[in-house]
Every structure is written in structure tokens, then in C-alpha cells.
């Protein structure tokens, strides 16, 4: 039969163990700052807190994603704003060129600045990039008439000289996406010249149709005769191709349409019968011709030939736009905000082929620029609307996150006042329990001492 002291010892030990456990939990909560440090603290609360934590992290990432999208649209809108200013200056030049007080020399001078501004538009379009995407380059182009030509490798073998007859016809086309192009022309004394055009009629490399006899020997003396005899669908040119020499490279090196071009120029008069042309990369299909009345030797080399602008995937710059996550919930009604491309090259704006000389061209340029300015305004408005939409989602996400975080903290975070009071309470109970155990142990020891003393007597 248990004595009173034994029962006190067992009760005190059990109470002391419980107080130690409670004290340990209070210390853990105060040290970690969280009320739930393991599933035994609150299993249901732990699951709810975990779900809220997942939601918190998702909302944080969603806001970072939206900030990236806003940066992308702001970059595109800023570049469009610069192009808008350029087109307004170009319209001013066109209006000036159309004025009757200007003679041909005056219009040519105005046309030079006009051409440089048009080249600057392309430079901005090709140079605007963020996150590996080019917002001002379109996703696709169309060069239907190029089917009338063959590619460079179908005419020439790499580094193998070939003799051909010149004229006013296209030799081949260099597909978009080609790399490391090198062409060498050996003039056999007939003053044949390399000519490089885009399908829209923009002359990239070659000799001036107005002054070089290589053109006049073929009956081509101006843009009209060039259009009728050379810029033909049979030669791979667009149906509406118009001659544009505003960015013509007669000799030297320059960057155009995202390409770096080096050209030796017409060497016939210097006694050197060799012309050379190199391109680092072709951003669009280019038509190669050798104009003249005789024959020539030609050699070509290339690192890689692209598959043409009809397959824009060959050039990642012409890929699709971006998709920005619009929600942290999978399979929601609107999972993404689409940031589509806003093509803004001179060709995309309808300015390819425009010029300021003669007066009729200047008047046509004014009309084309009016359309370009309107189109640019629409593209700017598009990105402005996208920025507002993303900022609206961010504000809504921030409010939802604040409320979600408040709920998570109420479930998961420790109440320091309560835990401190509980720790003090448990310490007092532990001390009192220890005192009771000490008293019980003292009573047992005293009883044993009395028994021992009686035996000795």
C-alpha cells in the first residue's frame, strides 16, 4: 500500500515532467518567434499556415514577373517615342522638299538627311532589346516573289570561282539568317558592278543609278526606268517595290538593318578589277545582282546560310512577343498578359522606298509619314494600356498579400506577451513542484532515520 509520501513523489515527478515540457515549448516559441514549430503544436494550423506561405511566395513572384513585364513595355514605349520624334522631323523635311523654291540640289541635300533618319529608325528597332526579346521587330515577314529566285548556294559553290554574264537581272538571293557572307567579284574589264537590294527596292550596296554609266548603259537613268526594267517580280522584288537609295553604301563600312556591311566600292576606274563585299549577318532576304554589259568571275563563301524570312524562327530577334503571368493561380480565366510585337522598322511603317526627290516623291512621303505617325501612336497606346493593366494587377496582388500575410501571422507567429507569461507561470509551478518533492523526500528520510534509531536501542 502506497504511503502518502510515495504518492506525493509520483505526483510531483509527473507534474515536474509536464512543467518541463511546457517550459520547453514556451522557450522554443520565444526563440523562433513562431507559435507552430512542429506538427504536434497545432497540426491543422500548420497545414493552413503552409498553404498561406505557398500563396505568399507565389504572390511575391507574381509581382516580380509583372515588374519585368512593365519594364519590357516601358522599354518598347520609350523606343517608339524616339521613332515618333524622328518621323515628325522626316515629315518636316518632306514638306520642305515639296516647296517649289527648292531646286534638285536642295532636294538631294534634304534627301540625305531624310535617308539618315530612316536608317536611324531601323537602328532603334534592331537595337531595342530586353530579356532577349526585340519588341520592335515583327514576328513574320513575307517575300512571296523570292520564289522566282534561287539561293546563293544553288548558283555558287563555296570558294569556287564561276564565270557568269552580267545584265540587269538578279543572280540569287541571300536568305535571312545567313552568317559570315563574303563575295568577291573579278571584273574582266567590262566594268561590271556588284549590286545588293532588299525585296522592297532598297539599295544596300552598289553604284548610283543617276551617275554611274554601268546603269545608263542598260537604259536605266532614274527610279522609273529602274522600276520598269529591274525591280520586277521576276527578279524577286515585291509587287510594290520602290527604289530607295537613301542608305546606299558606295564604299566603306556601315551598319544597316541590324547588319554590318563592308564594301570595297567600284574599283574599275582605279585599275583594280576586284570588288569585295562582306556581311556579318543578314536580318532579311537580300537580292544579289551584277549589273553590266560583259562577263565576270565571282567567288562566294559563307559560314551559314539561313532559311529566309519566311521562317522567322531562324533569327530569334523575329520571334514572338512575351507572355507575362497575370495570376498565381493555375488554370485561371486569364493566366497571361500578352505583350505582342509592335514592328517599327521603316519597312513596317510603310516608309521603305520613300524619298524626297523629285517633288512627287516628297508628296508621297508626306502621305506615308502621316500613316507612320498614326501607326506609332497606336503602338505607344498599346504598350501604355499593357502597363496600366499590369500595374492594376500588382495593386490588387499587394492588397491580397497583405490580408493573406495577416492571416498567416495570426496562425503561425508567437504571441510574445502570452508566451512570456506562460513561461513565468510554468517556472513558478516548476519551483513549487520541486519544493514539494524535496519535502516528500525529507519526510521519507526522517521516517527511515527514526526506524534505524529504534532498532539500535
Task: Provide an overview of this structure.
- There is one protein chain.
- The chain has three domains: about 5-35 and about 415-455; about 55-135 and about 340-405, Up-down Bundle (f41 fragment of flagellin, N-terminal domain); about 145-315, Jelly Rolls.
- The longest helix has about 55 residues, at about 45-95.
- The model has no long low-confidence stretch (mean pLDDT about 80).
- It contains eight helices and twelve strands.
- It has helices at about 5-30, 45-95, 105-125, 150-155, 215, 225-230, 360-410, 415-455; strands spanning about 160-165, 170-175, 180-185, 195, 205, 250-255, 260-265, 275-280, 285-290, 295-300, 320-325, 335-340.
- The relative contact order is 0.18.
- The chain has a six-stranded antiparallel beta sheet with strand order 1-10-3-8-7-6. It has a four-stranded antiparallel beta sheet with strand order 2-9-4-5. The protein has a two-stranded antiparallel sheet with strand order 11-12.
- The chain is elongated and about 140 Å long.
- The protein has about 450 residues and is an alpha+beta fold.
Amino acid at each position: 500500500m502506497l504511503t502518502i509520501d510515495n504518492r506525493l513523489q509520483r505526483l510531483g515527478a509527473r507534474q515536474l515532467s509536464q512543467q518541463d515540457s511546457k517550459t520547453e515549448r514556451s522557450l522554443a516559441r520565444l526563440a523562433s518567434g513562431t507559435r507552430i514549430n512542429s506538427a504536434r503544436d497545432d497540426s491543422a494550423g500548420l497545414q493552413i499556415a503552409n498553404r498561406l506561405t505557398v500563396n505568399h511566395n507565389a504572390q511575391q513572384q507574381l509581382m516580380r514577373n509583372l515588374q519585368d513585364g512593365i519594364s519590357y513595355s516601358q522599354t518598347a514605349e520609350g523606343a517608339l517615342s524616339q521613332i515618333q520624334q524622328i518621323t515628325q522631323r522626316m515629315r518636316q523635311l518632306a514638306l520642305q522638299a515639296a516647296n517649289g523654291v527648292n531646286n534638285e540640289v536642295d532636294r538631294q541635300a534634304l534627301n540625305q538627311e531624310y535617308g539618315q533618319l530612316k536608317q536611324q529608325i531601323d537602328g532603334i528597332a534592331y537595337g531595342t532589346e530586353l530579356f532577349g526579346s526585340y519588341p520592335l521587330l515583327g514576328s513574320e515577314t513575307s517575300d512571296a516573289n523570292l520564289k522566282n529566285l534561287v539561293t546563293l548556294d544553288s548558283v555558287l559553290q563555296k570558294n569556287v570561282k564561276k564565270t557568269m554574264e552580267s545584265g540587269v537581272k538578279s543572280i540569287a538571293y541571300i536568305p535571312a539568317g545567313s552568317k559570315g557572307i563574303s563575295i568577291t567579284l573579278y571584273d574582266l574589264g567590262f566594268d561590271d558592278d556588284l549590286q545588293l537590294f532588299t525585296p522592297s527596292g532598297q539599295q544596300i550596296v552598289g553604284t548610283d543609278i543617276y551617275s554611274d554609266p554601268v546603269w545608263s548603259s542598260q537604259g536605266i537613268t532614274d527610279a522609273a526606268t529602274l522600276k520598269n526594267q529591274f525591280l520586277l517580280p521576276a527578279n524577286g522584288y515585291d509587287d510594290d517595290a520602290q527604289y530607295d537609295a537613301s542608305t546606299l553604301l558606295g564604299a566603306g563600312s556601315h551598319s544597316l538593318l541590324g547588319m554590318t556591311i563592308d564594301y570595297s566600292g567600284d574599283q574599275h576606274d582605279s585599275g583594280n578589277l576586284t570588288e569585295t563585299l562582306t556581311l556579318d549577318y543578314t536580318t532579311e532576304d537580300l537580292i544579289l545582282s551584277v549589273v553590266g554589259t560583259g562577263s565576270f568571275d565571282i567567288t562566294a563563301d559563307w559560314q551559314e546560310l539561313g532559311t529566309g524570312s519566311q521562317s522567322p524562327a531562324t533569327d530569334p530577334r523575329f520571334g514572338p512577343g512575351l507572355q507575362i503571368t497575370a495570376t498565381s493561380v493555375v488554370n485561371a480565366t486569364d493566366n497571361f498578359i500578352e505583350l505582342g510585337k509592335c514592328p517599327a522598322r521603316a519597312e513596317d511603317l510603310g516608309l521603305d522606298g520613300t524619298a524626297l526627290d523629285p517633288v512627287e516623291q516628297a508628296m508621297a512621303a508626306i502621305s506615308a509619314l502621316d500613316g507612320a505617325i498614326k501607326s506609332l501612336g497606336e503602338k505607344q497606346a498599346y504598350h501604355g494600356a499593357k502597363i496600366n493593366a499590369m500595374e492594376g494587377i500588382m495593386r490588387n496582388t499587394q492588397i491580397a498579400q497583405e490580408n493573406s500575410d495577416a492571416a498567416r501571422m495570426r496562425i503561425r507567429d508567437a504571441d510574445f506577451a502570452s508566451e512570456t507569461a506562460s513561461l513565468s507561470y510554468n517556472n513558478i509551478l516548476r519551483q513549487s513542484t520541486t519544493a514539494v518533492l524535496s519535502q516528500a523526500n525529507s519526510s521519507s528520510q526522517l521516517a527511515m532515520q527514526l526506524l534505524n534509531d529504534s532498532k539500535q536501542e
